[in-house]
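Dear Dr. H.,

I hope your travels went smoothly. While you were away I took the liberty of generating a structure for the chain from your last submission, since the lab meeting agenda had it listed for discussion. I wanted you to have the full record in hand beforehand rather than looking at slides cold. The sequence, exactly as received, is reproduced here:
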Amino acid sequence: MAQQKHLELEDLGKDVKKVLIDCGKQLTSAPFKDNGDFEFIDDRKTLEVASRDFVKMQSSKVSPWARSMAAVSDLKKPDCRLIAWRFSKPMTLPIPLSVTVDLIPCEISGTPTIGGKPVEVGQSRHLTEDVRVHPSFTCLARVYGPAS
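The corresponding predicted structure, in token form, is as follows:
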């Protein structure tokens, strides 16, 4: 598989979009912790429950995107983590060297952007460097690289 470029868009398909919408509904009422510029879910169990169908779908034959990303096996590696973030104000999201992030929106409000590009549920943006985000959206973030 070719290496993805910064801000590369990946359409995840209709079936994944439906699952992400359900995930977004669950995350709407989840307890997020404030991290200054954005919020995150600190409770692993809440995240696992909300993202269960998304993670299952990635291991199925349903999604060509999921098969190409080898997502489930990646999530078992120590250098790959699934996180939920909520962006409610403009900020620059820092992406450390040797880390890449796939932002996977599951709930949006208004006209949010990632690096000036529109945010859509059912699509993923690949990040390899710092990026400006504008609210408001909640997303799953697949983070590859050493934990900080």
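Two observations you may find useful: Helices lie at 14-28, 44-59, 64-69, 71-75. Residues 44-59 form the longest helix (16 residues).

With kind regards,
E. W.
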